[in-house]
Design a protein that fits this description.
By secondary structure, this protein is of the alpha+beta class. It is built from 25 helices and 14 strands. The protein is about 55% helix and about 10% strand. Strands 9, 10, 11, 12, 13 and 14 form a six-stranded mixed sheet that branches. Strands 4-3-2-1-8 form a five-stranded antiparallel sheet, covered by helices on one side. Strands 5-7-6 form a three-stranded antiparallel sheet. The chain is globular and about 70 Å long.
């Protein structure tokens, strides 16, 4: 019997490789699709080592992916199995090689019912009839407060079509967000639900309903099949199919969004504002957003390229300008220096707001530029308030408004706004980690450590959380070198290297810290390195003059993190120096 026809049992779990379902004691376990494929590949090895390259080629055939994709999915798989790398019951990491499945397995014949199944069928039919009557009676439409649009699944093996599913998901989320009485989970949250059981996904993000859909392309035509499910009782509210040509995605989006809104007993604007009618512009916008969401240098390059192509095809496309602004900001410090990236982000966001003054995303981007680069605090306040008024359910607007208020040392508001961002986007690693950072800035180390650990428990590959954890440990007088080495092992960049340099200085390893400073100076001749980060190492070494030299450099660079100088404990040792107060006056002249 082939592997694809097997049901494999291990411990309390069963993996049905035909239906791609993992169960524990008969209950479904939520697991992303790629994580399930990894599990299937490990089970097929029957206890033998499966090297990383082979595993990645098996799970992502004909697709170039980074090793981090594998690490993240292994982490999800371990969480689903309640397994840990330090005390593994199922999956062992073989350093430098790959992974091995160590538990005993039993192969079952799927053609034979489970022992208890026959005796349960008759009762299940009776119960099922009763449940059906109950659901029919309670299936009358009721107001829906929160919906999660799950990532559309693209059927077929052509990786070039993957953007269609992400793009339609993003477009539908954007359209449904126009309903004032409806809270729509943002794209950053739903992307993490890919491959999960719809009802489990809905419960995970606190949604009342979920929209589950799939996309199939045949030559120049596409079919979209969707269903809307009520999480509370498992009922189907509505289902439908849509067929359109690939060149008429606008009609497809309009048709889906209108009928979805009607099914929820809500209403969209009677004359929804169309940002473009240019098919080429729209498809390039979808591609640009898709690649930018990968958050890699290659992704940013492709994202910027496709978004610019969308604008070239339709210079009046406001969403494309907004997307371009976001991509430039995200690429700053990684792909481009702030002076270049932020100026272009501001220009794109300004153009988006000029074309469509009601676009909340454009005002959020303008607030980010004003607070992170221009240090124009009154403009930042106005733009964030405008964004929140236009879309009070925007998690991104609440998150960036929280960080802006933190820069002004209004930490109580920062905590409140960050918690609201979390409520609107429960799976946002950014919101979770930034909340820990705000607690750290507030000198609430116990709360900060608790929050940062929650972040790492959720996503152990999120390197900024390790840096925050190091800061917390250091403020408590504890060593943090190992934590910074972990961050650097995940993402080797100037920020993680600087964090390691500061941790080394505070741990008494001053020669190591000095070598890192020299390494950062050398890197600064080839790429952007924030003077703020180098200043933290000099401050930890007690080299105040050098610290102020690099803080002045950070000021001339318009380095993003200099805006947190008022509250950052890393510079507590410099606060009584007149040069520190002078720098604050330059940053906050009216405050």
């Amino acid at each position: 019997m082939g592997l694809d026809l097997q049901i494999i049992a291990f411990g309390p779990f069963t993996a049905d490789l035909r239906r791609r379902v993992l169960e524990r004691d008969g209950e479904s376990v939520a697991l992303p699709g790629k994580a399930f494929e990894i599990l299937a590949a490990l089970l097929a090895q029957k206890g033998e080592i499966l090297d990383k390259d082979t595993l990645m080629k098996t799970v992502w055939p004909d697709t170039a992916v980074e090793e981090n994709n594998l690490t993240v999915n292994i982490s999800w798989l371990r969480k689903a199995l309640c397994d840990t790398p330090n005390d593994p019951k199922y999956i062992v990491t073989i350093p430098g090689r790959g992974y091995r499945f160590i538990a005993e397995i039993t192969v079952r014949d799927p053609s034979q019912p489970k022992p208890w199944l026959k005796s349960a069928i008759a009762g299940a039919l009776v119960v099922g009839l009763m449940v059906a009557v109950f659901l029919w009676y309670h299936s009358r439409p009721t107001p829906t407060n929160c919906i999660a649009v799950l990532p559309f699944r693209v059927l077929g093996s052509n990786p070039s079509n993957e953007y269609l599913g992400v793009g339609l998901t993003d477009a539908l989320i954007t359209r449904l967000a126009n309903i004032n009485t409806l809270t729509v989970r943002p794209m950053s949250t739903v992307l993490k639900l890919a491959g999960k059981d719809p009802f489990a996904a809905g419960r995970e993000v606190g949604a009342d309903t979920v929209l589950d859909g799939k996309v199939q392309q045949l030559e120049n035509n596409i079919r979209v099949s969707i269903q809307i499910l009520r999480v509370k009782d498992g009922s189907s509210i509505w289902a439908g199919n849509f067929d359109e040509s690939l060149t008429n995605l606008f009609a497809l989006e309009d048709s889906i969004s209108a009928r979805v809104a009607a099914s929820l007993a809500q209403s969209l604007n009677t004359d929804p504002k169309r940002n473009t009618r240019n098919a080429e512009a729209y498809q390039n916008y979808l591609r640009g957003r898709y690649y930018a969401s990968r958050y890699t240098e290659e992704g940013f390059r492709k994202g910027l390229d496709y978004l610019q192509k969308a604008i070239d095809a339709d210079p009046g496309y406001s969403l494309a300008y907004s997307g371009l602004a976001d991509c430039y900001y995200d690429a700053s410090n990684m792909l481009l220096p702030p002076q270049e990236a932020m100026a272009k982000a501001k220009a794109a966001a300004t153009k988006a707001a000029e074309i469509d003054p009601t676009l909340a995303e454009a005002h959020t981007s303008l607030g980010i530029v004003a607070s992170k680069y221009d240090w124009d605090w009154s403009t930042a306040e106005r733009e964030f308030q405008t964004a929140l008024k236009l879309n009070p359910n925007s998690s991104a607007a609440h998150l960036w408004f929280a960080l802006y208020r933190a820069e002004l040392a209004d930490l109580d508001t920062a905590v409140k706004e960050m918690r609201r961002a979390q409520e609107l986007d429960p799976l946002s690693t950014d919101a979770s980690s930034y909340l820990a950072t705000v607690f750290y800035w507030s000198r609430k180390n116990a709360a900060a450590m608790d929050q940062v650990q929650k972040t790492l428990d959720f996503d152990s590959s999120y390197f900024p959380a390790y840096i925050t954890k190091a800061w917390i440990l250091e403020s408590e007088g504890q060593p943090a070198v190992a934590v910074c080495e972990k961050a650097k092992g995940i993402a080797d960049n100037p920020w993680t290297l600087a964090a390691l340099g500061r941790a080394s200085a505070l741990a008494g390893r001053k020669e190591d810290a000095r070598r890192i400073v020299e390494a950062l100076r050398e890197q600064s001749t080839q790429q952007f390195v924030s003077g703020y980060d180098i200043a933290t190492i000099h401050a930890a070494l007690g080299q105040n003059d050098e610290a102020f030299t690099w803080l002045d450099k950070a000021y001339s660079q318009r380095a993003e993190w200099l805006g947190y100088l008022k509250i950052d404990p890393q510079f507590d040792s410099l606060r009584q120096d007149p040069r520190f107060r002078d720098l604050l006056r330059r940053l906050f002249p009216d405050r």
